[in-house]
Amino acid sequence: MIDGLSDEMIRRPVFPGKWSVFEHIVHLQTYQHTFISRIRQLLEGNNPSFSRYTAESDPLFAENCHKSVREIIQDLLGTRKKMLAEISLFPDGDLVKKAIHPAYGKMDLVQWLNFFLLHEAHHMFTIFKLSGELKKT
């Protein structure tokens, strides 16, 4: 989606006050780490309850906004491969373990995984649209 865009273009906000393509990518990359931590807590049991995640309050997000696009994408893809490998080994009994989302209530592991993918799809679609706007200019 970002092929043909320079680093400067990726970091440029398309709409004032809104995230750039780069910030959306950093958000996806940093949220993966939060999600992994939450899934580990879910798997430990006891129906953990999570507060609302915001990138603005995540020190990793702010820190990673100073890294290169390449570094962020390498971490995003490398972490995703590890996630996939671990998730594919979850026993069926783990799929029914639950944790509480602040807006959607108690969700089992399958629902958390679906939530993660839907959240990611939203940002990927936004990146697609923003990249299109940048390519027009």
Structure description:
This protein has a two-stranded antiparallel sheet. It starts with 6 loop residues before the first helix and ends with a helix. The chain is elongated and about 50 Å long. The longest helix has 28 residues, at 109-136. With 137 residues, it is mainly α. It has a single domain, classed as dinb family like domain (Four Helix Bundle (Hemerythrin (Met), subunit A), Up-down Bundle). The mean pLDDT is 95. The chain has five helices and two strands. α2 packs antiparallel against α5 (109-136). It has helices at residues 7-11, 21-44, 59-64, 69-87, 109-136, and strands at 98-101, 105-108. It is 60% helix and 6% strand.
In short:
With 137 residues, this protein is mainly alpha-helical. Helices cover 60% and strands 6% of the residues.
Question: What keywords describe this structure?
Answer:
137 residues, mainly alpha, Four Helix Bundle (Hemerythrin (Met), subunit A), two-stranded antiparallel sheet, 5 helices, 2 strands
Secondary-structure blueprint:
Blueprint: H1 7-11, H2 21-44, H3 59-64, H4 69-87, E1 98-101, E2 105-108, H5 109-136
Antiparallel strand pairs: 1-2
Helix pairs in contact: 2-4, 2-5
Fraction of residues in helices? 55-70%
* Shape label: elongated
The CATH superfamily title:
dinb family like domain
CATH C-level name: Mainly Alpha
Contiguous helical run count: 5
Flag low-confidence runs: none
Largest sheet, strands/sense/barrel: 2 strands, antiparallel
- Give the overall average pLDDT: 95
Please give the domain count: 1
Question: Under CATH, the topology is which?
Answer: Four Helix Bundle (Hemerythrin (Met), subunit A)
